[in-house]
From TrEMBL:
The keyword Transmembrane helix applies. The lineage of its organism: Bacteria, Pseudomonadati, Bacteroidota, Flavobacteriia, Flavobacteriales. Keywords: Coiled coil, Membrane, TPR repeat, Transmembrane, Transmembrane helix. Residues 385-419 form a coiled coil. PANTHER family: RAPSYN-RELATED. The chain crosses the membrane at residues 358-378. It comes from the Bacteria. Pfam families: GerE, TPR_12, TPR_8. This is Tetratricopeptide repeat protein.
Amino acid sequence: MRYLLSCILTLFFLTSISSQEVDTILVNLKEKVKESQSEIERAIALTKLGEHQIETDLPRAEQSFLEVKNFLESCKGHDHTRDTYLANAYNKLGVINRRKANYIQALNYYLDSKKMYEEMDDYDKVGDVIHNIGIIFRYQEDYKRSISNFKKAIRINEQTKDTFGVAAAYNMMGVSYRRLNKIDSAMICYQKAKDLFKKLKREEDIRGVDNNLATLYSSQGDHQKSLPIKLDNLNYYKSIGNKMSTCVGYFNISRDYSSLQDYDTSLKYADSSLTIALQEGFKERISKAFLRKSYVYRKKEDYKNAYDNYRSYKRYSDSIFNIESVKRIQELELMYEFEKERKELEVISDKQKSEVQLYVFLFVLTLIVGTTVGYLLYRNYTARARIVREKLEKEKLKKELLREKVKVSESELKSLVADNSMRLKFIIELSDKIKEDKKQADSKDIQQYTQSLILQLQQQIATESKLSSIQDRIEEVNRGFDSKIVKLYPSLTKTEREVCALLRLNLSIKEIASIRNATTDSVKASRYRIRKKLQVPSGEELEHFIQSL
């Protein structure tokens, strides 16, 4: 007895300390609201106050968030801070209305919040809103759609590394699987949720999973396993002032005692759940509490109270669960999806229009650039063609002048060669005559002979002066030819290159032999070797081939 009394006093002491801490936090938050210097500061302070009140004082939390919502909606223009706090206000008002069983209004708020978070690309919060929408479908007993939303929330939260969001979605998904009597799937979800909450060291959320596990044990008839968990968690929720969890805790314990046929204890816990639900306006919990009491009274054979409580249950139940509200919820969701698809189509349409305009602009720009480049290329081509034509004309003129010069040089050279031939003949004849005259001459005639010889020699000197210019003429006409033919045909000897230079001047074999003081046979042999080394095609004249070089 003393031990029990000690435990009660300890629990009371801890509860008092916790309540004082909560009160201190509440007082500080209210002071910050009063000290706000501007409307936006007040909205931020009210948001923090509302988030603190949402588990302990739902009506005041709703007032705080409504004030935030009304002020931020009246602000003109879009600001990231304003949009963030407004989207959060919508989400929290969705939670409050969901707890009050105003599911249509709750879904409206959730969809507005989801839309704003998506526009801000804040997918951390999008996952949270989808999770909350899943809870609405669970309360509407549309468990398949609730599971679909929880799975979607898990995917988003895993991508954004929101471990708490993943754990919370697994916990709620376990409840939906339990309602569908898929016990194994529910157990897997609960275990995943509990493991993640343990990593995060979230005691309150771990207890929430334990509560759901206890409910599962209870549904399997294992009340000895479920009751200790529920009673322990109830004391914890009362100590932290969590009204919703306390209300649910009382109800779950009432159900266990009902199953154990301890109807008086069951009624006591059902009444406690109903009292909190009525104070906080938790319509769904009110409905469930009346139904539980009706069931217990029926078991006690107190049919009057059973009937009265059932009527109260029907009144609240009909206001929550009816065909019209289900249709309205479905209509809201469909309207949201339709609006979302319409906006996506508008975005796609605008994007396609922009792409078409861009393509047209690029096409016109390409056409202009292409035309300009084509014109510039054409002008450049015509200019270069003109320059090439002029250059060709100049080269042609140079060649004509060179050809004429070569022809003149050839004529002069041939004349020199002819003079050279005459010189040789004359020298031979002069030599023969001197020899003949020497035999026949007498002393009187020597003087006259000498005079005649001098005259002939003077003529020969004139001829010799002509002959000395032959080599100069050859070099002038063939300037640069020798270096070129050395480069093209390095196997040619010097003698062969000299013969090539003479052949280039279109001289005959006899003329070349005369110039080089060689026999015609040796010139012919040189000509043959040259043709072979130059690889002159058969049928083409050697002189023409050399001139083409």
